[in-house]
UniProtKB/TrEMBL annotation:
Name the UniProt record assigns to this protein: Membrane protein
Presence of the UniProt keyword Coiled coil in the record: no
Cited InterPro entries: Anti_sigma_zinc_sf, Znf_put
Pfam families associated with the record: zf-HC2
Domain (Putative zinc-finger) ranges: 6-29
Chain segments annotated as transmembrane: 89-108
Gene3D superfamilies: Anti-sigma factor, zinc-finger domain
UniProt source species: Roseobacter cerasinus
Amino acid sequence: MTQDSEKLSAFLDGQLSVAETEAIEQHLQSDPELQAELEALMGADQVARDEFDEMIRAPVPLDLARAIQEAPEAEVANAPVAPAAGRSWLAALAVMLALFVGAAGGYWTGQSRAPAVASAPGWLQDIAEYHAIYATQKRHLVEVPASETEHIQTWLSNTVGAAVAVPDLSGQGLEFQGARLLVAAGKPVAQLMYLDEDDRVVALCLIATDTPRAGFAERTIGVFNMVAWGGAGANFVVVGDDDRSDLRAVAEAAATQV
């Protein structure tokens, strides 16, 4: 694995400092090859998680379960009699189970560690996946409509743990439609939904963090463009179709109001 690959892997796992994370994000903007490598790592990570999920859901074979249940009790550790050769498979089984539990423990330790880093790129990947679903909705685009803006701000602020304000983006040709509550990187996320004159969706999302990112960073994940920034105890991202050229202006307008 190259040094860049190791950095990207740590970037995905949320193991870099804020400064290192921002440096990688800036590098991604100008290096298509690095962006492609990041997306490949994301794909490989998802495949590994899917395979692990299938493995832990698979039932233990009946014969193996019976053998474990019927296995004789362990002998006294200082007994002079050597263990029977026929029981060597039990030792092998114990090693296999230990390896499995160890792998599972490492996986879940990694999972429990990730939500603590709100600026980890995983939350942007989650947002992109949500946007791919909700941006296609018409009648069910939002959970709470724009007519309840005051309630939206109170509800999401209390739930997310950071102040949520609904910016007026009419100057950018966007009309507020309402809001949803999402979960990304294991944390609640506020999602404010806007439509342009062509009924295309632009979303503004917010996640609480103790280490807001500095400055604006532009990224592309799949078929969506994103502009992320931080401030006031939260990280923000504006997401829209990859052919939009106005997202930076949208983000800058929103940043003055949130």
